[in-house]
Amino acid sequence: MAHDNEDGELPKLRTTSWAVLGILSFGSELSGYDLKKWADWSLRFFYWAPSFSQIYGELRRLEDLGYARSRVVAKDDVRGKRLYSITPEGERAMARWTNEAPAEPVVLKHGVMLRVWLGHLPDPDGLRAMLVEHREQSERMRVRARVDAEGAATEPDWAYPEVVLRWAERYYASERDRAEAMLRDLDRL
Length: 189
Fold this sequence. Notes:
This protein has helices at residues 15-24, 32-41, 52-65, 88-100, 111-117, 124-152, 159-188, and strands at 68-74, 80-86. By secondary structure, it is mainly alpha-helical.
């Protein structure tokens, strides 16, 4: 039974639930494994890379709310494969959430910055090496986001994910450049 009506409040779901439901909103029946692949392909650049247990927990919650449904299809002789899809109630709730949820401030959990903030504790050379690694990792992520955006550009249904992947490419370029600036700041210390 869905816990949403068009005049009432949206259910209090975690953003992770909305992200999983959002993946289903692209119209394909997906297994939990497929959902993980889609999240790793796209969401990881700006939100999260979920574990399988997170995905399956969210799917159960969404089914309980009536926002998703599942069915088992024959896979092999031993077990079936469970496929999930969004329900009409889930589509309405997803549309309402994207239109009505307030813009939340970005919460940045940046482990590298936490380590720099504690820079008085480690060896300065180790701190510098960590920042060099972060700069290089950011460049690899920038390239990956660009490649994924180019792939999304070939699919008309992925126009909006392409926009976000292009944003991710710019974000990681900026992250790379900020790491370089921080290395220069460390040289001045």
